[in-house]
Design goal:
- This protein folds into two domains: about 10-160, 3-Layer(aba) Sandwich (Alpha/beta knot); about 180-245, Helicase, Ruva Protein, domain 3 (Orthogonal Bundle), CATH 1.10.8.
- Strand 1 (about 10), helix 1 and strand 2 form a beta-alpha-beta unit.
- The protein has helices at about 15-30, 45-55, 55-60, 70-75, 95-110, 125-130, 150-160, 180-195, 205-220, 225-245; strands spanning about 10, 35-40, 65, 80, 95, 115, 135.
- It is elongated.
- The protein is of the alpha/beta class.
- Strands 3-2-1-6-4-7-5 form a seven-stranded parallel β-sheet.
């Protein structure tokens, strides 16, 4: 859902409608909704921007159009300039992660914020960078040129991540549900019973440790109810086949 505290995204003199649309899609992915355009080269509205935005078309429709960067950022109290070039200015240079943290902190204090991006050909001018509070530079492996939509996507992702409580790891079972504990216990007992008959749990002194290891292995699999039923069917099939076709050694 759009985040009312999210920073505004300001694009200074963007050239291609497709790139504006890509920026809108990136914004929609991560809850950003305030798109401000400063003198888009090909005019506005732009059918190519609308086509590229797809599901983010409402952001395109609601985009603010400004005649200058000063006008676009005027109501904001904290503005970061996204650029990869060294401007030889005495400004803090932040990673996207740190920038997102500071933007989130400002938002928690009801401070309106924004991130300023330059056009595809030349980026931000020195004058535009000069009116920003900090510079944000996206670390790269050496080739620092990013598409405008890519740059907005990275900043949007870092903003979203800074306030997102999603667990760093999860198991995706699809539509299936984790097996009830009682079904797991019956699986354990079924398997152990057949292993006992087959002579696997031998010698008796090792039996408790072997059972713990087997249960630990099955626990780590985080089985669904369907998977438990499948494994019990496998056990039945294996033991039934063994009884029908005994080996020459009688085992």
């Amino acid at each position: 859902m759009p985040d009312p505290a999210a920073p505004a995204i300001i694009l200074s003199e963007p050239q291609l409608g497709e790139n504006i649309g890509a920026c809108a899609r990136a914004m929609a992915n991560f809850g950003l909704r305030d798109l401000r355009l400063v003198k888009p080269r090909d005019g506005w509205p732009n059918p190519k921007a609308e086509a590229m935005a797809v599901g983010a078309a409402p952001l395109i429709a609601a985009a603010q159009i400004h005649g200058s960067v000063d006008s676009a950022i005027g109501p904001l109290r904290l503005v970061f300039a996204a650029t990869a070039r060294d401007r030889a200015m005495a400004k803090p240079v932040l990673t996207p992660t740190e920038a997102a943290r500071r933007l989130r902190e400002a938002a928690s204090n009801s401070i309106p914020t924004g991130v300023l991006f330059g056009n595809e050909r030349a980026g931000l001018t020195n004058d535009e960078v000069a009116i920003a509070d900090c510079v944000v530079t996206i670390p790269t492996a050496g080739f620092a040129s990013l598409n405008l939509g890519q740059a907005v996507l990275i900043m949007g992702y870092e903003w979203f991540k800074s306030g997102n409580a999603t667990s760093s790891e999860r198991i995706d079972h699809g539509a299936a549900q984790p097996a009830p504990r009682e079904d797991l216990i019956r699986l354990f007992e079924h398997l152990e019973e057949e292993l006992e008959k087959g002579g696997f749990l031998f010698p008796p002194g090792n039996r408790p440790g072997m059972i713990r290891n087997l249960r630990s292995i099955l626990h780590r699999a985080q089985l669904t109810d369907q998977e438990v039923r499948t494994l019990r069917g496998v056990i039945v099939a294996l033991t039934r086949g063994k009884k029908r076709n005994p080996s020459p050694g009688g085992r």
